[in-house]
Design a protein that fits this description.
Helix content: 25-40%
Radius of gyration: 16 Å
CATH architecture: Alpha-Beta Barrel
Number of domains: 1
Shape: globular
CATH class: Alpha Beta
CATH topology: TIM Barrel
Number of strands: 8
Structural class: alpha/beta
Bound molecules: D-xylitol-5-phosphate, zinc ion
Order of helices and strands: EHEHEHEHEEHEHEHH
Strand content: 15-25%
Oligomer: single chain
Length: 221
């Protein structure tokens, strides 16, 4: 199984985004956390900033929308040229239609779940998705402690995804570090967001490779 590291810039220098993205050439994507101060109690960046980033980097853009009214806003991020757009199921009235709209714009469609949201109700719509994002902290802030209670859901999600017979990525987001990544990989995650672990490291790009190595090792066991 391919193991992907997708660093979040939430703990990077937000006044120098293209510079910060250029520090992680080994990363499989850059994870951009869009927060609206409604769905989560924090405010980060929005569509105009993502459009500027798109003009300045070839990197795979992994957009994580932590915004209310996702049905209204998410397709525009795909239209702006992001390779992957994650909306939260808790913020969507019509997740199937939304996933189809994102795919119609040529992006990968991904659905995010907060730690207490179960995966089972969505089994029948997994085929509409290219990725499932499982939050391993309550969304809103970087640097929080990893929630081990999500591990069984990672396992169940991997089982349900395998049943579809499709290559749907399982991403974990929140508190992922050298200390926690093995647990996530063993449980079945293959795509790892790491914010503070990467951007607080002396050498962010070396950390990306160390995280990937650990995930690969854990998966072999
Ligand atoms: C939190 C964001 C995460 C966060 C990850 O709501 O979705 O992407 O920035 O940061 P760390 O790895 O520090 O938990
Ligand atoms: Zn995120």
């Amino acid at each position: 199984m391919a193991m992907r590291i997708t660093p979040s810039i939430l703990n990077a220098d937000l006044s120098n985004l293209t510079g910060e993205i250029s520090r992680i050439p080994s990363a499989d994507a850059v994870h951009l956390d869009v927060m609206d101060n409604h769905f989560v109690p924090n405010l980060t960046l929005g569509l105009p900033v993502v459009e500027c980033i798109r003009k300045n980097t070839e990197k795979f853009l992994d957009i994580h929308l932590m915004i209310a009214n996702a049905d209204r806003w998410a397709p525009a991020y795909a239209e702006a040229g992001a390779e992957s757009v994650t909306f939260h199921v808790e913020a969507s009235d019509a997740p199937i239609r939304l996933a189809r709209e994102i795919r119609a714009q040529g992006a990968r469609a991904s659905m995010g779940l907060k730690p207490a949201t179960p995966i089972e109700p969505y089994e029948d719509m997994l085929a509409e998705l290219d990725m499932v994002l499982l939050m391993t902290v309550e969304p809103g802030f970087g640097g929080q402690k990893f929630l081990d209670l999500v591990l069984p859901k990672i396992r169940r999600t991997r089982e349900l995804v395998t049943k579809t017979g499709q290559d749907i990525w399982v991403q974990v987001d929140g508190g992922v570090s050298l200390e926690t990544i093995e647990r996530c990989a063993e449980a079945g995650a293959d795509t790892f967001v790491a914010g503070s672990a990467v951007y607080r490291a002396d050498d962010p790009d070396a950390m990306v490779n160390d995280l990937r190595d650990k995930a690969i090792q854990a998966c072999r066991h």
